[in-house]
Amino acid sequence: MNDTIAAISTPFGEGAIALLRLSGPRAAGIAGAIFRGKKPVTELVPRVQHYGAVYDAKKRKLDDVLLTVFRGPHSYTGEDVVEISCHGGVLVSRRILGALLKSGARSAEPGEFTQRAYLHHKMDLTQAEAVMDLISAQTDLAMRAATEQLEGRLGECIRALRETIIELLANVEAYIDFPDEDIDPDSGVDLLAKMDAARADLEALLATADRGKVLREGVRTVIYGAPNVGKSSLLNLLLGHERAIVSPRPGTTRDVIEETINLGGLPIRLIDTAGVRVSDDELEQEGMKRTWQELARADLALHVFDASEPPSEEANGTVLTVLNKTDLGEHPGWRKIDAVRISCLKNKGIDALTKAIVARIAGGSTTHRDWSLAINARHADCLGRARGFIEAARGALTGEMSPEFVAEELRGALDAVGDVVGKADSEEILGKIFSTFCIGK
After folding, report:
1. 35, 65 Cβ separation under 8 angstroms
2. Residues 267-322: tens digit of each pLDDT
3. Which of 132, 263, 340, 392 could serve as a FRET partner for 413 with CA atoms 20 to 30 Å apart?
């Protein structure tokens, strides 16, 4: 925390502008060692862009830049921060970064700027995680959910939950402080009601874990079926461009093809697989082996059939059955089977299929209201432990155990809930979270 860190904060590659960021106690001094403007960097007005040029150690001009100073604690990290906007070439931005490093800065680790913001209490852990969620969001729904978390909505829910548990713990410890008084029946009923309310709040948050997984990772959706039923054609239609080779020759698709699309605000990871049939071809057999592997990992499977042919196998009720080639007429054997009927050739039924996919994933609802809270796996682990402690506290109370046992379980619940927002500064937790960040953020 005593070092001044520096990094290029814009993505690698060519662009109109690149942004370099410094943060730490010597940010202004290090920037001042390479910047030449009307005034020294230490005298510049904060939060105003200042024009000047930057030079390397040999006094060679590197670029004309705009420099902005942010004085701590009124900055992203809570420390003194300097941002330098230069032309967006790969070489020029690297040369400027090199000049900053030679002047005393250290290369920032992944996520170190946001980690410093957390350590300086500019945000809690849920907000820090939302920064990366916002950067990696692939759909509008995911972006808006990340924005609400960044604004602190999840943190507010967690803090309200902590207040409930603290109140419970205070009531129980009051009985511990006065051992001559047992918890009377009326007080016990009131404590149980508050525990049930806390458990209900925990379960409501835990119920959003699946939404969080969908928004952050996408839904692994495997398209499978016999050869030549239109799997690759369906993939191309859903993508809106020709991604997979389409041929009347069976066994054209030998490997797995994966692409991500946006359906109703949900990121869907479409996976086209090799056709499943009996074959002596080793390459085709390997393709089918990978098909079964993908199906084992799938969140949703689209089982595609040729509607004009009689059912060759029973449709699986755990997947979404898709009848393609309806333009050729539907075989009577399909009449009583619940399926989405489409024609890839005529581009018909795709909207109905899209709605069916969304219904399977989200129950048909993709409104922002229903998806604004979406916890991640770490949150779910913490909240799951908290629920276990609350249930144990309830069991101790109903079992007429000593108040000390009830209090101990409530303390466990309080610690577990606190871990969500970062009450405990565990280096292992912080390292795991911020290692997923990009350098410069």
Report:
1. yes
2. 898 888 877 655 556 665 666 777 778 888 888 899 999 999 988 765 555 689 99
3. 132
